[in-house]
Amino acid sequence: MLLTAIVAIIMMSSCNEPKAEPVVRPATQAGRFYEADPLRLSQEIDSLLSLHKRSPLDGVAALIVPHASPYFSGNVAASAYMSLNPQKHYKRIFMLGPSHHTWLDGASVNDAVDYYATPLGNVEVDRATASRLIAADSVFAYSREAHDQEHCLEVQLPFLQRRFKEVPPIVPVIISTNDYQKLQRMASALKPFFTDENLFIVSSDFSHYPSYDDAYRVDALTGQAVESGSAEQFMAVIEANANSGIRNLATSACGELAIITLMLMLDEHYTMKHIMYQNSGDIDNHDHSRVVGYHAFAALRNDAPTFTLSEQAKQQLKKIALQSISDSLNGKHAATVSPKILSQHPALRQKCGAFVSLHKHGRLRGCIGHFGEDHPLHEIVADMARAAAFEDPRFQPVTRAELSDIDIEISVLTPMRRIQSLDEFLLHRHGIYIRKGYRSGTFLPQVADEVDWTKEEFVGHCSQDKAGLGWDGWRDAELYVYEAIVF
């Protein structure tokens, strides 16, 4: 009884403890860079968005958007935000921008607040992910001064609030360093998040303070460099512009460091698309002697269409695998797949790799696979089923008597992609393929579901147990990742 009473008192005390109030960064720029009144702000943003009634772009990975007041750059910003699909659910939005107030020689990630406030409401901060970045590399830290009065990220939030019904949590990052190696480290730390589940927004205006005509010329050169997708070309043009003698040109892009960081994450799977350009001289015929340029770009994923298999195609492949094993047991040549079946399921003609795994009463009975894209899928599955049944050196050949107890699992592999760092490897999603000289080995993605390993242990075991390279042999080997459609 006494113990019960003590427990009850403890529970009551814990229930009565006040909950910590959320930490909110106030809307410091409301009434300065944009409207403080919620109704007028909503009307202004909605009217700008309504100017760009276009279909959303496919595969938007990132936007580059200006950060002046909506009066000046809102039209260009709206053109970028209207390229987003408002129905797409993003896990989080990484917001990258320059520091206008303090020098960091690095980047500040705001993991100190729970929300960013605007007149339209609060936007949640993904503090856990922000803290992960800070822990990942010393190039990231938190500096309150970098965020408190900074407008470049805050002015983007009303556009997100009017474009999405619910704004995903944000990760606010202010970048302020001329050290290229540090920018590379930032890009490496951010790259694992540069996936379809996240959106990146880079905040930057372009030319500052040249004449109207000079702005058009210099911004065209800078814009072409951004469209190239090459950080090196972008930096070369920025330097050439600075040395061109253009009067009053203070910078070609105030967010150049954030842009470089984004461009360092791009590869051949991305294309930079220009969306719109204006400068402040285009707004109500504003002063043409001293202007600021505004570009909008989208980074688009241009991977080949995702390879998919219908349920009917999956069942057909299982029939092909079973028929191949049965024909071998009966001394027959493997039956060919009829043109009618291939016509009904064209994915079976796709050239890609596959593994066939056999299980008996839940235990592995054979597994053989083939990488590469040199044969049609239906042929690979037939061949690998036969090999798994009769050629896996770990098991005795499958007999006719046990065929009815065999369950077939097929893993169709996506094309392999070379990676340079384990940061690019996603446990449970990617399979790993390690190659060094004549030695190689792989683990399918689903192996991670069967063991309790970290990604380093996953790769270490593959290197040691599959490729025969030793626990650390993967460190100077070629690493590839792939995904699998398992059924």
Explain the overall architecture.
Helix 2 (38-49) packs across helix 3 (70-81), helix 2 crosses helix 6 (157-163) and helix 9 (231-242) packs antiparallel against helix 10 (256-263). The radius of gyration is 28 Å and the shape is elongated. With 487 residues, the protein is α/β, with parallel strands linked by helices. The model is unreliable at 1-14 (pLDDT under 50). The protein has 14 helices and 19 strands. 33% of the residues lie in helices and 22% in strands. The chain has helices at residues 2-16, 38-49, 70-81, 127-136, 144-148, 157-163, 180-190, 212-228, 231-242, 256-263, 311-329, 339-344, 377-390, 455-466, and strands spanning 24-25, 60-65, 92-98, 106-109, 115-118, 121-124, 140-141, 170-176, 198-203, 270-279, 293-301, 354-360, 363-370, 406-413, 417-419, 431-436, 439-443, 478-482, 484-486. The strands form 4 sheets. Strands 7-4-8-3-9-2-11-10 form an 8-stranded mixed beta sheet, sandwiched between helices. The protein has a 4-stranded antiparallel beta sheet with strand order 13-12-14-19, with helices on one face. The two termini are 56 Å apart.
Strand and helix layout:
Blueprint: H1 2-16, E1 24-25, H2 38-49, E2 60-65, H3 70-81, E3 92-98, E4 106-109, E5 115-118, E6 121-124, H4 127-136, E7 140-141, H5 144-148, H6 157-163, E8 170-176, H7 180-190, E9 198-203, H8 212-228, H9 231-242, H10 256-263, E10 270-279, E11 293-301, H11 311-329, H12 339-344, E12 354-360, E13 363-370, H13 377-390, E14 406-413, E15 417-419, E16 431-436, E17 439-443, H14 455-466, E18 478-482, E19 484-486
Helix pairs in contact: 2-3, 2-6, 7-10, 8-9, 9-10, 11-13
